Amino acid sequence: MNRSNIYLDYSATTPVDPAVLLAMQPYFTDVFGNASSVHAHGRKAKAALERSREIVAAELGIYPGELLYTSGGTESNNTALIGAALALRKHGKSHIVTSKAEHQAVLETCEFLESIGFTVTYPDVNRYGAVEPEHLTGVLRDDTGLVSLMHANNELGTLNDIRTLGDICRDQGILFHSDIVQSFAKMPIDLSELPVDLASISAHKIYGPKGIGALYIRKGVEIERFQHGGGQERGRRGGTENVPLSVGFAKAVECMQQIREEERERLRSMRTQLLNGLTEKIEGLHVNTDISNSVDHILNVSFDAAKILIDGEALLMSLDTAGLSVSNGSACTSGSLEPSHVQLAIGHDAPTAKSAIRFSLGKYTTGGDIRHAVDIVAGVIQKIGRPAETV
Ligand SMILES: Cc1ncc(COP(=O)(O)O)c(C=O)c1O
To answer: Looking at the domain that runs over 18-254, which CATH code has it been given?
Structure first.
């Protein structure tokens, strides 16, 4: 791993675990058969594919047949929303609900669905990015067919109460999809006892390879297929199956299971150290993560523009130059930094939104990294921050 910068961007992606790399290797070379071929080479590949599916499915408490492999979280979200929406339209349901704080893979898919005739409502979120039950009940309609609300917010770390939100949907016969990419395998999630019909996951957030994810489709849920081709993935996604990556995905899940409990505690304690360090050294810090209701590895802060002005572009560049890799959720559009839609959704004005920093910790993060990161952030804020009244 490149140690030149301190890496606190594990929510963006993680390095592949060496054990995952080792597990995948034979499936690129020795066991190279096409999993759909009926001969011995194909059968060997198929066996590995299905074994991996069993492992990933078991992590979620679901049947292997309910797990559709995809190319990642983005494709899983597209498949869930477009596939379910097209199927629901046949039953006269054309209203969809999602929140303003979802990942772009959900929001842009919803924009596409609007362009082909669906109606989408975006309920408010609270100041930590969570949808409250009353936000949801207030927007449901007779023709609502699908609700999509994420588990852990990828920028803030805050958790939605998917049990309560899913129950509301189930009571009204509405399908409930959840993007659980950021919490999957990092905390135990048993979908067999949650009111969730569709759930998206991705391997590269848990030290697995990039380019593979999966969608949980509860048995009996109708999804209109839109990737046509061969009959792979039970006829739901044409295309030669990616056996090496599926093996890597399963290995990554097993590695997470082995370290999960102690790792969660370690991450929680380092996040506290980070928060305490930042609060001690920097004034005007705004904590955007609901610390008591969040995944353990994310801390999101911003700086109240009414007190201190931080130039968002200068912030990210200066942190990088000073040796810290973090992100802030802003999108770079036509050369200028657009504030993160999540920061705006939780009520920040644009300058405060642009000053956000997302720290996301992982298994190679050390206490020393945290101490160093605190010093770097404090130094950069001192250098580029301007008291609001001088502007
Ligand atoms: C919450 C969430 N959903 C979806 C995605 C997209 O996943 P992938 O990169 O596997 O397409 C991400 C990754 O950034 C994410 O954090």
So the answer is: 3.40.640.10
* Helices 243-281 + 40-60 axis angle, to 10: 30
Q: Looking at residue 9, what DSSP letter applies?
A: B
Separation between Cα atoms, residue 152 and residue 180, nearest integer Å = 6
| Pairing verdict, β 324-325 and 331-333 | unpaired
| Tens digits of residue pLDDT in 333-349 | 556 678 999 999 999 99
- Decide if 227 contacts 270 (C-beta within 8 A): no
The answer to whether residue 332 is catalytic is: yes
Considering the candidates 110, 169, 255, 332, report the single residue annotated as catalytic: 332
- Interval 9-33: pLDDT, tens: 999 999 999 999 999 999 999 999 9
- Superfamily grouping for domain 6-12+260-390: Aspartate Aminotransferase, domain 1 (3.90.1150.10)
Contact (Cβ atoms closer than 8 angstroms) between residue 152 and residue 180? yes
Pick from 78, 106, 155, 182 the residue to mutate for probing ligand 1's pocket: most ligand atoms within 8 Å of its CB: 182
- For a mutational test of ligand 1's pocket, the pick from 205, 210, 249, 295, i.e. the residue with the most ligand atoms closer than 8 A to its C-beta, is 205
Phi, psi of 246, deg, nearest 5:
-65, -40
> Residue ranges per domain, the chain?
6-12+260-390, 18-254
| Per-position b or e across 342-374, b if 16+ CB within 10 A of its CB | bbbbbebeebbbbbbbbbbbbbebeeebbeebb
Handedness of CA 319, 321, 326, 328 (dihedral sign): positive
Atom of ligand 1 nearest to the CA of 204: 10
Residue 80 CA neighbour count, 13 Å, CB half:
39
Whole-number pLDDT of residue 312: 86
Q: What count of residues does the chain have?
A: 391
For ligand 1, atom 14, name the residue with the nearest CA: 12
Of 91, 183, 75, 72, nearest to 146 by C-alpha is 91
